[in-house]
Amino acid sequence: MNVNETAWVRTGRLDLIPVGVDHAEEMAAVLGDPALHTFIGGAPEDPDELRARYERWAKGSPDPEVVWLNRVIRLRAGERLVGTVQATVGPGPVAEAAWVVGGAWQGLGIAKEAVVAWVTWLRAHGVEEVRAHIHPANLASAGAARAAGLRVTDTWQEDEQRWSTGRFAPNTS
């Protein structure tokens, strides 16, 4: 597995850029809608709280067998940050992925485009299985997962169902 912690991922409209402490102010506004936490729990974080989180992420995982990959989603039109994609990779060639798009940019296909690109990139860099845990009422996240090749499984974690690409070699064609 050769995941590059600093690599950018580019799509037709988006750049997935490694999260930096300097993103905290703008991301606090993007993620500030309490409705975003309906399925993921918690509450919006202010810029200082996000800055502290991003500083922890920058230090990397304390487990040498685990890599944290955190990206902001930048919509190139308007040069706006609109959400995040994340993956915790390892131990082994398995990644736990998550994503969120700010309410103002939902319904535009951004999550789908970002998640497809993210999963494709992870698979191309040695990840054999990508998993996500999605609340069954979160139809938008389920749609993005399905578009990226994840399928619902019978495994539950609290009130979220696991979705998975399964363990098979990445498509490099």
What is the structure about, briefly put?
The protein has 173 residues and is α+β, with helices and mostly antiparallel strands. The protein has helices at 24-30, 47-59, 110-124, 139-147, and strands at 9-10, 14-18, 67-75, 80-89, 94-101, 129-134, 151-157, 160-164.
Topology:
Blueprint: E1 9-10, E2 14-18, H1 24-30, H2 47-59, E3 67-75, E4 80-89, E5 94-101, H3 110-124, E6 129-134, H4 139-147, E7 151-157, E8 160-164
Parallel strand pairs: 5-6
Antiparallel strand pairs: 1-2, 2-3, 3-4, 4-5, 6-8, 7-8
Give structural attributes:
173 residues; alpha+beta; Aminopeptidase; 4 helices; 30% strand; globular; disordered C terminus
Write a structural description.
- The protein is of the alpha+beta class.
- It has a single domain, classed as Gcn5-related N-acetyltransferase (GNAT) (Aminopeptidase, 3-Layer(aba) Sandwich).
- 25% of the residues lie in helices and 30% in strands.
- The chain is built from 4 helices and 8 strands.
- The chain has helices at residues 24-30, 47-59, 110-124, 139-147; strands at 9-10, 14-18, 67-75, 80-89, 94-101, 129-134, 151-157, 160-164.
- An 8-stranded mixed beta sheet has the order 1-2-3-4-5-6-8-7, with helices on both faces.
- Helix 1 (24-30) crosses helix 2 (47-59) and helix 3 packs across helix 4 (139-147).
- It is globular and about 40 Å long.
